[in-house]
C-alpha cells in the first residue's frame, strides 16, 4: 500500500464501504441436531440453506449431524437452526476415537456417540484421569521383555 493510498484511506468520507473490509473465510461447521425423520431432515436443511454465504449443506440422519460449508459465522448457524426448527442444536462434540490417546477414560467415552466416535476432551482433568496409576504400571512392566527378572517371577 503506497503513501497516497494510505492517506486516501485515512481521509475517506464514504459510508463505510471500504475495499479493505474483512471477508469471512470459508468454513466447515459441524452441528449436532436430533433428526428423527425425513421431515425433520428437510426442515433443518431448509433452515440453513436460506442463510447468506452457505455453499453446501449435508445432513446425516443416522448420526444426527449437519455439516454446513460456506462463508458463515458458526454461532449464527447454530442459532438459526435452533430458532427455525425449535430443536436443540450444538456444535459437534465428537472426534474419531483414533485421535484420542485414551478413548475409554471417564469423561471421554460416551454411550450416545455415533459408532467410531468419542467425546472431545479439552479438559486437562480428563487427561489426568486417563493416565495409568502406579500399580497398573508395575503390573504391565513386570512381565515386559525388557525386565530381566521376569523369568524368576514366572
3D architecture notes:
The chain is of the alpha+beta class and about 150 residues long. Helices cover about 35% and strands about 20% of the residues. The chain is built from six helices and six strands. The protein has a four-stranded antiparallel β-sheet with strand order 2-3-1-4, with helices on one face. It has a two-stranded antiparallel sheet with strand order 5-6. Helix 2 crosses helix 3. The chain is flat. About 10% of the residues are buried. Residues about 125-130 have low confidence and may be disordered.
Which keywords apply here?
flat; 34% helix; single chain; Heavy metal-associated isoprenylated plant protein; 6 strands; alpha+beta
Structural class: alpha+beta
Q: How many separate helices?
A: 6
Helix content: 25-40%
Radius of gyration (CA) equals 25 Å
Strand content: 15-25%
Give the termini distance in whole angstroms: 76 Å
- Helix/strand order, N-terminal first: HEHEEHEEEHHH
The strand line-up of the biggest sheet is 2-3-1-4
Q: Name the overall outline.
A: flat
Largest sheet composition: 4 strands, antiparallel
Protein name: Heavy metal-associated isoprenylated plant protein
Set down the secondary structure blueprint.
Blueprint: H1 3-10, E1 27-33, H2 38-49, E2 54-60, E3 65-70, H3 74-85, E4 89-91, E5 94-96, E6 117-119, H4 124-130, H5 134-142, H6 150-153
Antiparallel strand pairs: 1-3, 1-4, 2-3, 5-6
Give the gist of this structure.
By secondary structure, the protein is α+β, with helices and mostly antiparallel strands.
Amino acid at each position: 500500500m503506497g503513501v497516497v493510498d494510505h492517506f486516501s484511506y485515512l481521509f475517506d468520507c464514504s459510508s463505510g464501504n471500504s475495499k479493505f473490509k474483512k471477508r469471512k473465510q470459508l468454513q466447515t461447521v459441524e452441528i449436532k441436531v436430533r433428526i428423527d425423520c425425513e421431515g425433520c431432515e428437510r426442515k433443518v436443511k431448509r433452515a440453513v440453506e436460506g442463510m447468506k454465504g452457505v455453499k453446501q449443506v449435508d445432513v446425516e440422519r443416522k448420526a444426527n449431524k449437519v455439516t454446513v460449508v460456506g462463508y458463515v459465522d458458526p454461532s449464527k448457524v447454530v442459532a438459526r437452526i435452533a430458532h427455525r426448527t425449535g430443536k436443540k442444536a450444538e456444535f459437534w462434540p465428537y472426534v474419531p476415537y483414533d485421535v484420542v490417546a485414551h478413548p475409554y477414560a471417564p469423561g471421554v467415552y460416551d454411550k450416545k456417540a455415533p459408532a467410531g466416535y468419542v467425546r472431545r476432551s479439552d479438559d486437562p482433568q480428563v487427561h489426568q484421569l486417563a493416565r495409568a496409576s502406579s500399580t497398573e504400571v508395575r503390573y504391565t512392566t513386570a512381565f515386559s521383555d525388557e525386565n530381566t527378572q521376569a523369568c524368576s517371577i514366572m
